[in-house]
C-alpha cells in the first residue's frame, strides 16, 4: 500500500472562503521511486533487503494477492484497477451493502472477512467453516455487482425487491435465536442522522434551505449534503444530526447507538418543536381541516409513522382530541398529537 501511494501528493485547502470546506487537493507525481533504505517518516526505518547478493534500494509496487505490477505512469490508478478486479472487493461491498439494508451482514463482523472461508466451492478444512451464513448467496451477490460494473442503485434495488427484505419485522411464530442468521424476519434499523432530518421535514412539510459553497441551488434534503460537516449555514441542524452519530469522513465512524441526548433533541430541540406547530406545518394545517377526529388520528399516524394506529392508539388519541372544546384548543391538541407521534420509538426506526 505504501508503495502504491508513494507518488501521491496531498494538499489541504485552508481558505474556507475560496475552497471547499476541509477539502484536499490530491495529485500524482509523474515519477519517483519507493525507497527502502530510508530513516524518516512516521513508520520504522525501511531496511534494504539483499537480493541475489545486492541490496534492493527501491521497488515498483506489486498487488499483494496477484503479483500484478503497477503501470509506470500512475501507480495509484493501477492500485484502484487491481482492487476493484479483486473478488474480495465485490464480496466485501456486497456484504456491507447487505448489512446496511438488513442491519446484519451475511458475514459478520464485516471488517474481518477471511478470503479462505468465503468460497462455497472451495470450503476450508475442518474444523474451519465457511464464514457467511449464506455463502452461495454472498457469492452470487458479488457476481451481480461485478456484472453490473458495481452499479449500487441496481444492487440496492435488487435487495429491496427481494422477499427477504420485504418480510415484516413481526414474527408470528415462536422466535428462536437460531433464526437470526436465517433472516426469518426484517430487523428494524435505527435511522441515521440525515434520514431522521428528512423524515421530520417530509412529515411536517417544513422544508429548510441550506446554502452551500459552490452549490448552484440551496439544499433541502439532508441526504443531498456533500459531507457530514454540512450544513455550516445552520448550526442547529448540524448539531441535531450529529447527535445521532453520523460521524465524519476522517476519524469518527457512524454509529447506531441511542442516547438520552438524542431523545432530548427529539422532544425539545427547535428543529422538531417548531415543525410540529400548525402555523409552520402545511401538513398539520391540512390535518386540522378534517372534521372527524378519527380521520385526524389516522392522517397523523400515516404522516409520521407510515402506518395506521392500532386500536389502543386510536382510542386514546381520539379521546384526547375530543376533549378540545374550541377550534383553537383542537389545533393545539393536533400539534401535541403530532409531537407525540414524532417521539414514538418507531419514528426513529426503519421497520
List the helices and strands and how they pair.
Blueprint: E1 8-12, E2 24-28, E3 34-35, E4 50-51, E5 54-55, E6 58-59, H1 75-84, H2 87-102, H3 135-147, H4 152-160, E7 189-190, H5 193-204, H6 235-243, H7 260-268, H8 270-273, H9 282-288, H10 293-305, H11 311-322, H12 327-342, E8 349-350
Antiparallel strand pairs: 1-2, 3-6, 4-5, 7-8
Helix pairs in contact: 2-3, 2-4, 5-6, 9-10, 10-11, 10-12, 11-12
What does this entry look like structurally?
Strand 4 and strand 5 form a beta hairpin. This protein folds into four domains: 8-71, no CATH class; 87-182, no CATH class; 189-273, no CATH class; 277-350, no CATH class. It is built from twelve helices and eight strands. It has helices spanning 75-84, 87-102, 135-147, 152-160, 193-204, 235-243, 260-268, 270-273, 282-288, 293-305, 311-322, 327-342, and strands at residues 8-12, 24-28, 34-35, 50-51, 54-55, 58-59, 189-190, 349-350. The mean pLDDT is 91. By secondary structure, it is mainly α. A two-stranded antiparallel sheet has the order 1-2. Strands 3-6 form a two-stranded antiparallel sheet. A two-stranded antiparallel ribbon has the order 4-5.
Properties at a glance:
12 helices; two-stranded antiparallel sheet; single chain; 4 domains; 351 residues; mainly alpha; globular; 8 strands
What is the straight-line distance between the termini?
41 Å
The percent range for strand residues is 5-15%
Instruction: Please identify the oligomeric state.
Output: single chain
Task: Indicate the structural class.
Answer: mainly alpha
Instruction: Work out the helix count.
Output: 12
Global morphology: globular
Q: How do the helices and strands follow one another from N- to C-terminus?
A: EEEEEEHHHHEHHHHHHHHE
**What is the alpha-carbon Rg in Å?**
27 Å
Count of distinct structural domains: 4
Low-pLDDT runs? none
How many distinct beta strands?
8
Main sheet record: 2 strands, antiparallel
Amino acid at each position: 500500500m505504501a508503495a502504491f501511494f508513494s507518488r501521491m501528493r496531498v494538499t489541504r485547502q485552508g481558505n474556507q472562503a475560496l475552497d471547499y470546506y476541509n477539502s484536499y487537493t490530491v495529485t500524482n507525481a509523474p515519477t519517483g521511486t519507493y525507497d527502502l533504505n530510508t530513516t524518516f517518516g512516521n513508520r520504522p526505518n525501511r531496511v534494504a533487503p539483499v537480493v541475489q547478493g545486492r541490496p534492493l534500494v527501491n521497488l515498483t509496487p506489486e498487488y499483494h494477492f496477484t503479483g500484478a505490477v503497477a503501470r509506470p505512469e500512475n501507480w495509484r490508478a493501477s492500485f484502484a484497477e487491481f482492487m476493484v478486479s479483486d473478488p474480495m472487493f465485490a464480496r466485501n461491498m456486497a456484504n456491507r451493502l447487505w448489512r446496511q439494508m438488513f442491519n446484519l451482514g451475511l458475514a459478520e463482523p464485516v471488517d474481518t472477512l477471511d478470503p479462505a472461508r468465503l468460497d462455497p466451492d472451495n470450503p476450508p478444512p475442518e474444523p474451519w467453516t465457511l464464514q457467511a451464513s449464506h455463502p452461495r448467496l454472498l457469492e452470487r451477490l458479488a457476481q451481480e455487482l461485478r456484472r453490473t460494473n458495481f452499479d449500487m442503485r441496481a444492487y440496492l434495488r435488487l435487495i429491496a425487491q427481494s422477499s427477504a427484505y420485504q418480510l415484516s419485522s413481526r414474527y408470528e411464530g415462536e422466535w428462536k435465536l437460531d433464526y437470526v442468521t436465517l433472516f426469518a424476519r426484517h430487523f428494524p434499523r435505527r435511522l441515521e442522522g440525515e434520514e431522521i432530518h428528512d423524515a421530520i421535514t417530509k412529515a411536517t412539510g417544513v422544508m429548510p434551505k441550506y446554502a452551500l459553497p459552490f452549490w448552484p441551488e440551496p439544499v433541502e434534503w439532508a441526504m443531498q449534503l456533500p459531507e457530514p460537516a454540512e450544513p455550516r449555514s445552520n448550526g442547529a441542524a448540524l448539531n441535531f444530526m450529529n447527535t445521532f452519530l453520523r460521524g465524519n469522513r476522517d476519524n469518527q465512524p457512524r454509529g447506531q447507538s441511542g442516547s438520552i441526548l438524542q431523545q432530548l433533541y427529539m422532544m425539545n430541540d427547535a428543529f422538531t418543536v417548531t415543525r410540529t406547530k400548525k402555523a409552520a406545518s402545511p401538513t398539520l394545517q391540512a390535518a386540522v381541516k378534517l372534521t372527524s377526529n378519527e380521520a385526524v388520528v389516522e392522517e397523523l399516524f400515516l404522516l409520521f409513522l407510515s402506518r395506521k394506529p392500532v386500536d389502543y392508539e386510536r382510542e386514546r388519541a381520539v379521546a384526547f382530541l375530543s376533549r378540545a372544546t374550541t377550534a383553537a384548543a383542537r389545533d393545539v391538541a393536533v400539534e401535541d398529537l403530532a409531537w407525540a407521534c414524532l417521539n414514538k420509538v418507531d419514528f426513529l426506526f426503519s421497520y
